[in-house]
Design a protein that fits this description.
heterodimer; A: alpha+beta; Thrombin, subunit H; six-stranded antiparallel barrel; 12 strands; disordered C terminus; B: Arp2/3 complex 21 kDa subunit ARPC3; 71% helix
Chain lengths: 302, 178
């Protein structure tokens, strides 16, 4: 009997672990579909522990990269400065003209009143590590549930869309990037208002899938979020069209986009402390997202 | 137990180093240290039960530090351990070149299996097929690093009291009775 028990130990262990892995996948898939997906209590500390170690490892890398980047920036700074001054003057003039037009139409005061409602609380977060699998595109950020971050919150930078928080622990979060194969965002071409779906391909480029009939997409067009997916606020930059597939007999055409965000150089991002739907993100509704509101109040007070 | 805990800690450290390296290197050029450590376990550890348990743990940690579903890497790391275990018994993995070729092939198979698993659990259409060049690049990087990582794992196992580790890795010649 003891001999049998010893002989069966390994097969039982393997069957048990395979069953645990399979059940975990099914449970996690359901959790992702359901929305919020906080890591279990025993998994959170591992992620929390990884953040300071990764920060320590990436500090010298970032230091060297910053120093080199600053040196590179110094080269040709005078010419760039003159160019920017010129652009600034042009934009100031354009701004003045637009303001005049708004005052003339009596809408400026109304817009000023609405501005408070449009402001979305955001939390800066540092990217400390990338994905351990080449197949997935996600990053670890140094802010977690303690800072008010929850799964399903969008992550952006000053350049545009970065991704979405998909798992949180107490002091860290994992954000799936726009580049990931599992990402899909409802987008609009800024110029022609052609709508479509932006999908990650697992490479440095993303795809924009739109209906061929009447779809007006050209190289150089800027694609922004439509806000209709209920996750990302409207009007955030997603990318610029670099190629458009030939119009054939197919129902859908595809354009290739270069993401607005340079993911290779991204070090800091902002987590929007509100979860979808997008209307709630932009317009405060009755009841609202009380939990996120409390969290954002806590974060801004920090 | 102590040996398993130390190996688990070192595996976590390897994954964290890999995640940090991923900020500098392109994903396809970043070595899959988790996979290489598991291959090292398959070649060095005497007890298959400890090896399977550690492989599952490395997979679970990889799932936590990755955008995958929890369980995907866990399952694949166990399969990688089994492949390395069988490979070390059936094939001549002595020397860096055969081990590098074996690790490169295993890396490519691992990538394919991961894509299949992700496709199976995808809610809509299957995710896009990864570029063949990326597969090839990571297989080459993993193959090049495999002998080094496997030797490191064997050395740690030996230092922790697994006398057979060095023999299994053929770092020491087998001693036959006179």
């Amino acid at each position: 009997m003891a001999d049998l028990r010893v002989r069966m130990r390994l097969p039982l262990l393997v069957v048990g672990l395979v069953a645990v892995a399979t059940v975990s996948m099914v449970v996690d898939r359901r959790a992702l579909r359901g929305g919020p997906r906080d890591l279990p209590p025993w998994a959170g500390p591992i992620l929390d522990a990884a953040v300071p170690i990764q920060k320590a490892i990436t500090f010298p890398i970032d230091f060297v990269r910053h120093s080199w980047g600053r040196y590179g920036d110094l080269v040709g700074i005078a010419e760039e400065n003159a160019l920017l001054h010129e652009r600034l003057h042009a934009l100031e003039e354009e701004n003045l003209q637009l303001r005049e037009a708004l005052v003339a139409s009596g809408r400026l005061a109304r817009i000023a009143e609405m501005r408070a409602d449009f402001e979305v609380p955001m939390l800066p977060a540092q990217l400390v590590g990338s994905d351990v699998s080449a197949f997935f595109r996600s990053v670890l950020v140094d802010r977690g549930r303690a800072h008010g971050i929850r799964s399903g919150m969008p992550v952006i930078s000053e350049e545009g869309i970065v991704g979405l928080v998909t798992a949180t622990s107490n002091r860290a979060s994992r954000a799936t990037l726009l580049l990931d194969r599992q990402t899909a965002i409802d987008g609009t071409v800024q110029r022609s208002r052609t709508r479509g779906i932006v999908r990650g391909r697992g490479t440095d480029l993303v795809e924009f899938e739109f209906v061929a009939r009447g779809g007006d997409v050209e190289v150089g067009d800027v694609v922004i979020t439509s806000g209709l997916d209920g996750v990302y606020p409207k009007g955030l930059r997603v990318g610029i069209v670099t190629a458009v597939s030939e119009a054939g007999a197919e129902l859908l055409r595809t354009a290739t986009l270069v993401p607005a965000v340079d993911f290779g150089r991204l070090e800091q991002a902002f987590v929007i402390l509100r979860r979808g739907p997008s209307m709630e993100l932009l317009y405060r509704t009755e009841g609202g997202d009380a939990e996120a509101e409390t969290a954002s109040a806590g974060a801004s007070g920090r | 137990m102590k040996r398993a805990l130390v190996l688990a800690g070192l595996s976590l450290l390897a994954l964290i180093v890999q995640a940090s390296a991923g900020r500098v290197l392109a994903p396809q050029w970043c070595p899959d240290l988790g996979l290489l450590v598991v291959v090292g376990f398959g070649l060095s550890l005497r007890s298959p039960a400890t090896g399977v348990g550690l492989a599952a743990l490395v997979g679970y940690l990889s799932d936590l530090l990755s955008g995958s579903l929890v369980g995907q890497h866990m399952l694949l790391r166990m399969a990688a351990f089994a492949a390395a275990r069988v490979g070390s018994r059936r094939l001549n993995l002595r020397g860096p070149v055969p081990l590098a070729i074996f690790a490169a092939a295993l890396s490519a198979a691992h990538g394919l299996a991961l894509w299949a698993l992700v496709s199976f659990f995808a809610s809509g259409s299957a995710p896009p097929w990864p570029p063949v060049g990326d597969f090839f690049a990571q297989a080459v990087v993993n193959g090049l690093l495999a002998p080094l990582v496997a030797a490191g794992v064997a050395w740690v196992c030996q230092a922790l009291g697994d006398e057979e580790a060095a023999r299994l890795m053929r770092l020491e010649p087998r001693k036959f009775p006179a």
